[in-house]
Design goal:
The protein has 8 helices and 10 strands. The chain has 215 residues and is an alpha/beta fold.
Length: 215
């Protein structure tokens, strides 16, 4: 089983996919046998091959170990709503034992696996539990993507506390992403985050005209 790193965020829309896909690309260039995985995704289009999510497709395209789509993204739902609601509407239970079995199979031929979460750390599953149960059960390391916007200090600190709560996961570090061009006092807020999270950012993404992993 590959070493796994779980990419979570302070909220939805903070750039987890850009960061996760970028990290997969970097690892593949080393070169390492690396896979990018998306355990659960809501917001998909119908194709002749079935439902497909853009984030999962981007992770698959960056990976150096080819996998069938169903192993990249085992739970895929069409409506762009909270994953547990999409799963409930579809009548599909998302249970931890199946996620654990899926991860072991999907990462079997890789040295390194990056798993992109959905929304923030404590996203609910249907019918019970949280997506964070998966990295906690597997003891995965975590990278936190902080969307640099108002409220990020509180969200980042609370997320870091939740990651460390059970003692099963290690916060490797955090990456700041400039998602709000009008966010004031960026440097001062980065300094505050470094104090609140115990270390400076691994990286700070600039404002990108098009938020793509290659950039």
């Amino acid at each position: 089983m590959a070493r796994g790193i779980f990419i979570t965020g302070t909220d939805t829309g903070v750039g987890k996919t850009v960061v996760a896909t970028g990290l997969v690309r970097l690892a593949a260039r080393q070169p390492k046998r690396v896979v990018g995985l998306k355990p659960i995704a809501s917001g998909a289009i119908r194709t002749v091959a079935g439902l497909r999510n853009d984030d999962a497709l981007a992770l698959a395209a960056a990976s150096s170990v080819p996998l069938p789509y169903e192993l990249v993204n085992p739970y895929c739902f069409e409506p762009a709503i909270a994953p547990h609601l999409a799963a409930a509407d579809a009548g599909v239970p998302v249970r931890l034992p199946r996620l654990v079995d899926w991860y072991r199979q999907a990462s079997r031929d890789a040295e390194l696996a990056f798993l992109e979460g959905a929304g923030g750390w404590r996203v609910p599953l249907h019918p019970e539990g949280f997506l964070s149960d998966l990295p906690e059960h597997l003891g995965l390391d975590v990278i936190l993507v902080v969307g640099m916007r108002r409220g990020c200090l509180n969200h980042a600190r609370l997320t870091a506390e939740a990651i460390g709560h059970t003692g099963h996961c290690r916060l490797l570090g955090w990456i700041g992403n400039r998602v709000d061009p009008d966010f004031a006092r960026l440097d001062a807020n980065l300094d505050t985050l470094a104090r609140l999270l115990g270390a400076p950012a691994l990286a700070v993404l600039p404002l990108l005209p098009v938020p793509e992993a290659e950039a």
